[in-house]
Amino acid sequence: MSLESFNKLVKLTARAFYDDITAKGDNQPKSGRSDNRGIAVVVLDALTRRQWVREEDLAKDLKLHLKQLRRTLRFFEEEKLVTRDHRKETAKGAKAYSAAVAATADSLPGREGEEKIKLHTHSYCCLDYAQIHDVVRYRLHRMRKKLKDELDNKNTVQEYVCPKCGKRYNALDAIRLISFEDDGFHCESCNTELVAESDKLASQDIGDGDDNARRRRREKLRDLLQKLEVELKPLTDILHRVKDLEAPDYGTLQAWELRASAVARASNSDPNANDSSRSGMSGTPMPFLGETKIEVAFSGVEEKEIKAESAPLKQLPPWMIKEGMNLTNEQRGVVMQESNADGTSLSMDDQKDEKKLINQEVDDKKKLQEEYFKAYYEALLQQQRAQEATNIKEDPSIDNFPTDADPSNSRKRQREDDEEGDVEWEEETPAPVETFKVDLNVEAAEPSGDDEDDDGIDWEEG
Amino acid sequence: MFFHIVLERNMQLHPRHFGRELREKLVSKLMKDVEGTCSGRHGFVVAITGIEDIGKGIIRDGTGFVTFPVKYLCVVFRPFKGEILEATVTMVNKMGFFAEAGPVQIFVSNHVKIQKDSEVRLKIIGTRVNATEIFCIGTIKDDFLGVISDPAGS
């Protein structure tokens, strides 16, 4: 859900800072035809729509020359926006990637046809969102600081440069630079008199003492600073929004591939697909065994899992909701539903691991249900014992069950309130009674499958 | 900024000083050695104010010199970035001027309309610290900074 915001950040960054970057070297003359300004924006935009992508495929998609794309990507790698990975692989080995791609975007057909043994170096690239965030913030910070310092003439260390040999000094070297013949500063290596370097940003008129020139310079700087703030407003806004969000992270190429194919396997339930591709990979099999997952096996978890996957999104706890997240009303808890009553260890990092989350959700639900049933049967048993005088063993009448007059019943209700603070359960109470009839003597029995499913659905909606 | 701290030093004493006034000799030698020096870590040692402890001496083989570990209290002066100091202008050239605040030298760039020997209040904007010397650069472009007394006026 943070992906959208981060993609917007990337797009804005591309337009703000990389708009006029050409993929060509600076030494080549720019002619009208070969002018490829804006290519950087196109490439970055394309990358926001992909995860890890093979550079050849990207070039094909963008109808760019591979060399040109590589140059752009190398530039972005230096700018720390993009991570790249190169590896030698056979055409067959590339299938691992293709399989992973097929899992994420099922539009791309896998290339199974070509089977050469020849090794090719394939390069892959991917946006590094977390780093982009940092890079952009740093860049903005530097821009502002430079302008502000210059404006206040504060914290700026005067620099000196030797006109003959180009050696640079700053004011901290001053004591070493004074020569004894005259009071001026002289270069250490060629003894030429140094000149103070004029400001880089605003073209400084000669004669620092000139108040008029200084005022003009200050105005220029202030204008520049103001313009920076106005023009980069969208970027700062998105940075602010994204600040507390977790950056999408696709991991390294290998990790991503494994994860993607694992997801594919899980969804297709076709274990062979991955195995064949893995065996085709050159080099040793990777020790990566997927993410550690803890599953508590309950009977009937399988079918519940599938059901839960199609279930509506669950509400996030308030401490997890942050500004800028795209959430439905339900997730924000507008209906005031307490889906995870005791808030058990739903930590932030689980956010990504959806499967785990769902498992946990199911477990939580089961736990609650179990607790509830336990309390419920206990209460009923006590009730029964009270009624033992009349000895109606096989039929605890539904009529007298919900009355609050019964102390055991109220105790039950209190406990229930402690546990989930939800009125919903009370309305549901007639439902499990049928089950109760079936196995009356079993204390805290597991509810039968049908009944449980009903509860599950009610619980979600309530 | 000034600090009053305890420092330690190993003093070598010639055998001819051994006698009743060994301790006095040791202290006077310490003062001569240490006062006015500069270490990058602690700054300029301005004055020794007392002796904390003199440890057991060790006689060196061959020379007969004795090494005493001496702990002493002293006032040190260490300039920091952002600190405001009052200083006397010692030299003006076309790049700026140099000023002295006690032992520390400060260079202020881009101010040439200033007279030698005038007093200025300045802010340190950068320090260069070596093992044995400290050099600062400062500015007088800030509120309440600048010339505080002209030599012509006094």
Automatic annotation (TrEMBL), chain A:
PROSITE patterns: HTH_TFE_IIE (PS51344)
Region (Disordered), start-end ranges: 264-286, 385-462
Domain (HTH TFE/IIEalpha-type): residue spans on this chain: 6-137
Domain of life: Eukaryota
Segments of skewed composition (Low complexity): 264-279
Coiled-coil annotated spans: none
Signal peptide span: none
Pfam families assigned to the protein according to its UniProt record, in alphabetical order: TFIIE_alpha
Biased composition (Acidic residues): 417-429, 448-462
Keywords noted in UniProt: Transcription, Transcription regulation
Matches recorded under SUPFAM superfamilies: Winged helix' DNA-binding domain, Zinc beta-ribbon
This protein's GO CC annotations: transcription factor TFIIE complex
GO BP: transcription initiation at RNA polymerase II promoter
Family: Belongs to the TFIIE alpha subunit family.
Protein name: Transcription factor TFIIE, alpha subunit
Record organism: Artemisia annua
Lineage: Eukaryota, Viridiplantae, Streptophyta, Embryophyta, Tracheophyta
Automatic annotation (TrEMBL), chain B:
Keywords associated with the record: DNA-directed RNA polymerase, Nucleus, Transcription
Domain S1 motif: 79-134
Classification via CDD domains: RNAP_II_Rpb7_N
Role noted for this protein: DNA-dependent RNA polymerase which catalyzes the transcription of DNA into RNA using the four ribonucleoside triphosphates as substrates.
Protein's recorded name: DNA-directed RNA polymerase subunit
GO molecular function: single-stranded DNA binding; single-stranded RNA binding; translation initiation factor binding
UniProt GO cellular component terms: P-body; RNA polymerase II, core complex
Top-level division of the source organism's lineage: Eukaryota
Localization annotation: Nucleus
Pfam family, one: S1
Annotated GO biological process: positive regulation of nuclear-transcribed mRNA poly(A) tail shortening; positive regulation of translational initiation; transcription initiation at RNA polymerase II promoter
InterPro entries given in the database record: NA-bd_OB-fold, RNA_pol_Rpb7-like_N_sf, Rpb7-like, Rpb7-like_N, S1_domain
Protein's UniProt keywords contain Nucleus: yes
Stretches assigned to the RNA polymerase Rpb7-like N-terminal domain: 8-64
UniProt key word Nucleus: yes
Sequence similarity: Belongs to the eukaryotic RPB7/RPC8 RNA polymerase subunit family.
